[in-house]
Amino acid sequence: MSARRLLLFLAALLLASGAFADWQNVAPGVDYQEFREDTYDIHVVRIDLTNDAIQIIGTRESDKGTKVSDYARKIHAIAAINADYFDDKFNPIGLTVGPCGEWENSRRTKREGYVAIGNQQARIARQSDVDQDAPADEWMETAVSGWPALIVDCTPLAASELPGSDAFTRSPHPRSAAGLSRDHNTLYLVVADGRRTGVPGMTLAQLAAFMASRLNACSAINFDGGGSTAMWVRDHIVNRPSDGVERPVADHLAVILKSDFTECDPADEARRVAVMKARESKTGVTVTTITTTTVTKTTTQKPQTSASTPPPPHP
User: Fold this and answer.
1) In terms of pLDDT, which residue wins out, 310 or 259?
2) Partner residues linked to 125 by β-bridges
3) Which of 162, 191, 218, 255 has a CA between 20 and 30 Å from the CA of residue 209?
4) Upper half-sphere CA count for residue 21 (Cβ side, 13 Å)
């Protein structure tokens, strides 16, 4: 996107700000707002990470392959969104930490950054800052991965600075992302609708510009988007998934009341994961190879995950 087009895009967002609803408080420390403009429909959850009444959690490995709404109902989420890209067995592509610890079967790659929260810390790391061979840091209570970084050092990345193909990075699609404020005390969960009449979606540069200018995010990372994009607030999905229905996804990022948190039972989790693995090994799994424009199903070919290609988007 040229500098002139980016300025016009930001100006249109600012001019439309009078039509935006105010932030709606949905729980202690959690606010929601829908940003609507002629060609954009963006949903944002703003979370105060210093509020002691709430907690950010990820997904247990035994709950992989769950729709955002089903996951949210199960954990009594205030808000939740889809997170990382995933393979044919719903294993996330990058580092994943849930209530039972780091996932055993997440597929580490050199292309993934992450957002991690725990022990009064919050961090969004670029893929170049991640040691893919190292285990999760001890302070990480929750971590989900994504690609690519959208905002670095409070500066939104331009189209020319963002990796990926024109079809993925510089074309409009539904998007999901997370961002942090300068002081790391505020977490933003963001989904942008797309692929419907009048609302095509956003390029990654447009998403980065929106999060920097409208939310004042100082770091941000892109999650799996396209048909996977979904956001739950209060008691329902607030956006319009582009497939017309929700997709099952590998993992999620959610905020709950601390009083609703269920501690991990390691023995029960190990049993459930073992049962899940046994079921996967006995039944044929249909692999879905996805590009930004087509969806092809096969029983032999796996999604491209080599170091020379980006994580497979799920449009």
Assistant:
1) 259
2) 114
3) 255
4) 13
